[in-house]
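Onboarding guide, step 5: your first structure request.
Type a short instruction followed by the sequence, for example:

Predict the 3D structure of this protein.
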Amino acid sequence: MHLRQPRYNVRRLSALLLSAAFWLAHLPAATAQTLDFDQCVATALRQNPDLSVSRAQLDQALAGLRQAQGSRLPRLTASVNATRTNDALNAFGIKLSQRNATFNDFGASQFTGPAALGVAPDNLNHPGSVNNFNTRLEAQLPLYTGGLIEGNIEQAQAYIRAAQHGDVAARQQVIFNVLQAYQGVHSARAFVSVAKQAEAAAAAQVKTIDSLVKGGVVVKSDLLSAQVRLEDVRIQLLQARNAEAAALDQLHLLLGLPLSEPLDVGAPVMPAAIPGSAAALRALALADNPKLKAMRDQLGASQAGVKAAKAGLYPQVGLMARQDWNDSKIGFSASSYTLGGSLSWTMFDGNVTRGAVDRASAKHAEQQARLVQAENGVALQVDDSRRKAEEAEFRLAARQLAVTSADAAANLVNKRYASGVATIAELLAAQAQQDKAHADVVAAQYDLAVQRASLKLAIGKLEPDQL
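The system replies with structure tokens like these:
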């Protein structure tokens, strides 16, 4: 049995394919969204997850303050408790609370005179089961807590200030990271441009040397050396393109954008130089660095923690007001009230409170040491970034001069080689020097931007309007 093959209209199928190809060719390509540096920073500050963490910490601190301040206010509780008992003492007490006690509850029916004084009354000793529903409203107001409430409030306020300064620090760190990635894209593209020029020059050299080999002017080994150099340059070009893609991917992550979303960058950015001596810049950083400000507020919080811990060493004074209703069913019968005050002082607790004070004091000392360590680190960062920025600025000027010299030198060696005066080694060395000079300019520009931004970050002045 033979299956009949389906027959297609070849002309119709070809027309459909051509039509589909036409429409696909004319579909608009996905255009990359171009963002300048300010737009990148605004997007990152709006969407970066690090700042979401910082804002959540600030919300926690604000909630902690509300919690601490609430401890000063009266505490009002409402409760309903149901009880059924035949316990003699409790049953009699419940009857009293319900205002239902009678003489017969004392066993009055069994009292027949002085001779019955030794008789145990059954109604009093063996009561029946009694039901009670107690409805209660109770208010408690602390008058003096030994500094516990004040210490908790001071600690919460310090944590809020620390969180606010921490949010500023996180914001500036995000700006610094965006600048690194943003300039990294421009730097990688500059390397790509340098590598393309080097590839074009190397390919032209291969073509020229191939002609000279065919003409018997130079030996074939020169051609092989030129071809090796061409492949090396192509590898550098591939590495530069990969670096550009990696920088764009990093920028995507910082902006909170999916990697699949097309993205391009606007004009490059160069932070301005910061005037001032090393000592003046260190003093500015110690005063304005938001991380140091946050740590100083954390130090204040730890000091307030010591105060709160010491509250257990002092007496506690408070007031209480209570309204009760007792009934055999849920209701508001048998109303009663209670007013009272309390004074308590823990005289001995096995050094539990003293241990808590010592622990809080040790934490405060640790925070002081961490602050000193951080201040030294910021001072070091200021000096290091300032020196590296000055070095990058000097290096950039020198490399720009070197580019002019390297271009001229490579041009002369090319002519000398074509005239048979220079060797292939001299030609390749001149070309490598030229490529390196161009690449060094790109690297110096990137280093200058990053180090200036790092210095601004250290002194707490890294904001888009302060670049």
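Each response can be followed by summary notes, for example: The chain has a mean pLDDT of 86.
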